[in-house]
Amino acid sequence: MEAGNILTSIEVMPILISFIKIVVVIFAVILPMVAYSVWAERRVSAVIQERVGPNRVGIPFTKIGLFGLGQPIADGIKFLLKEDFTPGHVNKLYYWLAPALTMVPALLTCAVLPFGSELFGEKMVIADLNVGPLFVFAIASLSVYGIVLAGWASNSKYSFLGGVRSSSQMISYEISLGLSLVPVLLIFGELNLSEIVREQSKNGWLLLPFWGEGAIWNGGVDRFFLLFPAFIAFIVFTTSIFAETNRLPFDLPECETELVAGYHTEYSSMKFALFFLGEYAAMIIGSGLIVTLFLGGWSLPFGLDAYLMSVSGDPQQIPWWLGLIHIGTFLAKVIAFILFFIWVRWTLPRFRYDQLMKLGWIIFFELALVNIFITAGILILTRDPAP
Amino acid sequence: MPITVERPKLTLLEKFYFPAIIKGLRITIGHAIRILRRKKKVTMQYPEEKWDDNMPEYYRGAPALVTDEHGRERCVSCQLCEFICPPRAITIIPEEIPSDDKWSKVEKRPKEFEIDMIRCIYCGMCEEVCPEQAIYLRKDYAITGHNREEMVHDKEKLYEIGGVREGLVNKWNKLK
């Protein structure tokens, strides 16, 4: 067959649109958000501790400070210009591979997150997979390899201990992470994240079912009683996300007081920055996942979506301004959740390692397991058996 | 005989852990709100805001030489400060005052008087030991320079910082 025939047989437009979506989401949304969540972390922690935080770096060569908004850019330039030092005692291949292996899965997981409803008839999700949460778990569990490899390849006792801790912690919490999600999937009967959000937009968020068919006065008795298991799932899932992303109070892989810096002790310059970015990217994706599953994703609360759709006229086509509102809503929710992450970090002290394992294996694992049965029981009692 | 320390008995609510987390979150957000509403101000923005006005009387800044009300150098080059100086920051080269000078009866004055501000520890012993009340610790604290030579204060610089000090000052005993 001629090359031209293959090219014409492939639809170019969908690939091009996906490409545009990937570039925009990664380079215009996630990476700036990562950089600025570092800035937010520093400013919020400063405010909590009654300090000021970075407030100087603005436009270069002027006195304009802009609340220190130039700080992440200056940090990035600093990381790029630093000497890229590889210690002599490391395993070179894995040492170089590890930072990329932490960064890439964190960015890959954003492929299935619906960050908006529709814009010009195009679904605002990079890959509309029917196995969204499973894809996220599959890819997110890869990021542990980066940390283990970093700890092993660094050939240093601190890195090694950090890597070992991290692997056991992430594997333990992945169990409760996965199990806590089963009730949510039972309630929606759906594994497609876009569909889950659309359902929440129509019939009430999982944690706020007070409009549409989900409201108790509209016959949504099941959703009202399901609030209890949903809340348990939310707590377990959120805490497990904290543990998965190695955030305080579960940041044992890199706890400074014991392990210098944990698995990235031997890293410097951009390779260290990749670990750093991967960690924050994982935090952003985690917040996005929590928002999508429990807090309605891009949807506006209290049936505002349906109202705005009725205002626009055409019930099938979502107008562009509503699409933009949806994207803004999603970003606002994610940012709020990131601020919550930061707030928790600067409030709670670090867990002891045995406490961490006890919490994961003895409390959350069982709680998530029992929660599945509670949810299933409520579903049997309140919903009509499927025809 | 080992002593067993009983762990505190936790109530059910404390074992549940979440009330404690919420309490902690309330405390931190309280601090954040207080600082955001500018109810409390802790940090001073240094180069723009300085604490010069709030400096206490007893502040020990850069040591400096002073002249008296007639414009005479008070220092008579006794070199006591040079001997007492713990980090040996002071170097004095004395000089006889020529007989045709107005202050020839004072007999001695420093030809060169150098304080190495890299070595100075601002202890104030030179001020304490000086019998002529010629050296004082002033309130200058931002002593900077581009190289080591710039950080050595010579006589001219010391008088420039010190200025004029009139009358006798009772340094320790107010009754004297």
Shape of chain A: globular
N-to-C SSE string of chain A, H for helix and E for strand: HHHHEEHHHHHHHHHH
Based on CA atoms alone, the radius of gyration of chain B comes out at 28 Å
From the spread of the alpha carbons, the general shape of chain B counts as elongated
Structure annotation, total helices of chain B: 5
Low-confidence stretches of chain A: none
Biggest chain pair interface: A-B, 12 and 15 residues
Structure report:
The complex is a heterodimer of chains A (387) and B (176). Chain A is mainly α and 387 residues long. Chain A folds into 2 domains: 1-81, no CATH class; 82-382, no CATH class. Chain A has 14 helices and 2 strands; from the N terminus they run ααααββαααααααααα. Chain A has helices at 3-9, 12-48, 71-81, 92-108, 132-140, 143-153, 157-188, 193-203, 221-244, 256-259, 269-294, 304-312, 320-345, 353-382, and strands at residues 118-119, 122-123. Chain A has a two-stranded antiparallel ribbon with strand order 1-2. In chain A, β1 (118-119) and β2 form a beta hairpin. In chain A, α2 crosses α11, α9 (221-244) packs antiparallel against α11 and α11 packs across α13 (320-345). The radius of gyration of chain A is 22 Å and the shape is globular. The mean pLDDT of chain A is 82. In chain B, the strands form 2 sheets. Chain B has a 3-stranded antiparallel sheet with strand order 2-3-5. In chain B, strands 1-4 form a two-stranded antiparallel sheet. Chain B is built from 5 helices and 5 strands; from the N terminus they run ααβαββαββα. Chain B is α+β, with helices and mostly antiparallel strands and 176 residues long. The longest helix of chain B is centred in the first third of the chain and has 19 residues, at 18-36. Classes of the chains: A mainly alpha (387), B alpha+beta (176). The A-B interface holds A 44, 47-52, 343-344, 346-348 and B 21, 24-25, 27-29, 31-32, 34-36, 40, 42-43, 45.
